[in-house]
Amino acid sequence: MAAVWWVMGALFGCARQAGPPDSLMDPPGSNPLIQIAPCVPGDPDACFNLGVAYSRGQIVPQNHAAAQQAFTQAALDGHAAALRFLGTYYRLGESVERDDAKASQLFTTGCDRGDARSCTFLGQMLSDVESHLPKDYENAVRLFSLACELDDGHGCLNLGYAKQYGLGLPPDYTAAAAHFEDACALESQRACVALGDLYAMGMGVSRDYARANSHYDGACQGESDIGCLSLGEMHLFGLGLPQDTDEASRLFQSACETDSEAACYFQEHASEGLSRVELASGFCDQEHASGCYHARLLYQYGEHTEVDLEQARSYQQRACDLVEYYCEDPILTP
What is the pTM of this model? Predict the structure, then answer.
């Protein structure tokens, strides 16, 4: 079992402890803007592009108020993605007071107009423990499915998580693997890691460390800190690869440089000969919820240790005490 415990930190959420999986301000498939036309009524693309430029501080100084004005005009002229960008401002409380109801209205309209990522973001709000909206898992799964059908990699990723962790339904690991495969093909590095996890654990697919490592390696080369962390762990413990502490340390260092606290901890202790449980529990002892969750899964599934549900529940509770969204994980019930 590899990075599933680190990935869980971003499960379904728009804004988690370590930030969103990809910038909510980046439209799918966008490229840096080369030149910016003025925003005039009747030209939604120009207004949208100007809004993106202001939101990122590209070519023009960053100015969220000006970005919102440009997105508003683009939305009035029918630009669906502009609604998503406006909704994101209200969802995150960026330069405006946070307003989940307003955000959900904007995402709903964007989704209705065919913006797949708006569907994904609305689904996240309906399933996120940090959202102020009532939970509606059935509708969230429907929205993720719709977004995935529209080729939004984040939609397929969230649909895979919903199937893997039983969001409103019993877990279906085979379906989860298929959705992660779709998302990985749509260049969601997080999905490539999640698919690698299933191959590493043999959940929904036959256990295949070689395929797991291939997905981790691809994600790592795509500059995913979780991909590098996962591949490093496989090297450290010789899972489908020759055991190589030096290579593991190099990969941990690479992920650590992108502010992965777990990778920094693993890099610091890689040469000490600790077991996987010892590494995870030590990270947990430093009050990192992902380390507690890591240890919980090792005990729950008996990975490199004996199955011990009492210990698993203990680490689950510690993760829950540190970060609320671990409390709603449906995998393990007392």
Answer: 0.83
